[in-house]
Amino acid sequence: MREQLLLICNWSTLGVCAALKLPQISAVLAARSARGISLPSLLLELAGFLVFLRYQCYYEYPLFTYLEYPILIAQDVLLLLCVFHFNGNVRGAVPYLGAFVASWFILPLQKWTIDLAMNLSTLISSASKFAQLQYLWKTGDAGAVSALTWSLASYTCATRIITTLMTTGDLTILVRFVIMLALNLWVTATVLRYRTAAVKAE
User: Fold this and answer.
1) What is the pLDDT at residue 76?
2) Which of the residues 44, 88, 92, 147 could staple to 191 if both were Cys, CB 3.0 to 4.6 A apart?
3) Following DSSP, what letter does each residue of 3-68 receive, concatenated?
4) What is the pTM of this model?
5) CB neighbour class for 59 (10 Å; exposed up to 12, middle 13-18, buried from 19)
């Protein structure tokens, strides 16, 4: 039973993450606008994903406990390029992408740097969610923000809480997923609230 639950959580997380950002990317492309998408939120999320993946690789945790992160990073990079494109400045993404690539090689140089980065990545990822929430509160408009993407992110955090408890038991990772679950649910609820308000206004 334990092995079956672990298998279901791992495969369902991987399946959901394979399409996690696609509704958001699709919404941006359909609207031909990045309205509602917080660039600071996206950059912080990408940084958090990168640190998390590097941490997992550094400690040689089982591949299935983090296999979705390369997929998420690729989707975030695509979304980042869409945001810069629709804001009229694709070249503006280059310095950020360069910094992300450089950090991949710098982070594991010392054990303390990767550990510190992982602890900070929870704060960084939390800041990304708060940046999106702040943007939504400020504009009062969900724009092209996909509630489906945020609800799927909530699901993956819930499954990763289960898999972390069943495999590595790493408290740093567990705390990260609990916090991310709560914040993803908050963003989802906020998007739905503004989406409902917009429909009523029409």
Assistant:
1) 92
2) 147
3) HHHHHHHHHHHHHHHHSTTHHHHHHHHHHTS-TT--HHHHHHHHHHHHHHHHHHHHTT--GGGTTH
4) 0.82
5) middle
> Based on C-alpha coordinates, what's the Rg of the chain?
17
- Whether 95 contacts 152, CB under 8 Å: no
User: What is the mean pLDDT of each successive set of 10 residues along the chain, which is 202 residues long?
Assistant: 86 89 87 84 90 92 89 93 88 90 91 92 89 89 83 94 92 94 95 78 62
Contact 5, 104 (CB under 8 A): no
Instruction: Say if residue 64 is exposed, middle or buried (CB neighbours under 10 Å; 0-12, 13-18, 19+).
Output: middle
- Measured CA to CA, the distance from residue 68 to residue 17 in angstroms comes to 6
- Kindly report the CA angle at 12 between 11 and 13, in degrees rounded to 5? 90
Whole-number pLDDT of residue 202:
60
